[in-house]
Amino acid sequence: MPFSEREHTADILMHVCGATKKELYEESARALFSVMFPSCTKEEVTIHFSLSAEGEERLLHEFLSEILFYAEVECVALCRAEMTFTPSGLSAELFGEPYSRERHGGGTEVKGISLSGMEITRTDDGWCTLVLFDV
To answer: How far is CA 53 from CA 87, 88, 94, in A?
Structure first.
């Protein structure tokens, strides 16, 4: 399983893995979407952004934080992310649908992404990390 929830006293902790580093980032986004917008299925809206950051963990943190920002500011429920690494960071496209309280109200609000415990490691099967969603 690319991501699974781990026990945590107050927030939502996800263990995320991917065969590649790109897949790790996209699965981390998918874990976030599964918490926030579990009923999102349509891809009517596309958002594009690029960002840069120093270090792998900081880049993943900024990527997920940017997703939170766009979900809030653009008022969209997001379903999927595609990203590519660039020489200075990454470029991403987010896919989703306009937010509807009736349709998407069953999700959990994520207030932020924590860097606490986030450490990207390479394993024999790919890449893994822990991501803590502040709820």
So the answer is: 11, 8, 19
- Residues 76-91: tens digit of each pLDDT: 999 999 999 999 999 9
Q: By CB neighbour count within 10 A (0-12 exposed, 13-18 middle, 19+ buried), where does 57 fall?
A: middle
- Torsion (CA) 63, 44, 104, 21 in degrees, nearest 10: -30
Q: Alpha-carbon distance 32 to 68, whole Å?
A: 9
For residue 17, what is the enclosing H or E element? Answer: strand 12-18
Which whole number is the average pLDDT over 17-30?
97
Q: How many CB atoms lie within 10 A of CB 125?
A: 9
Can you tell me the mean pLDDT for 13-42?
96
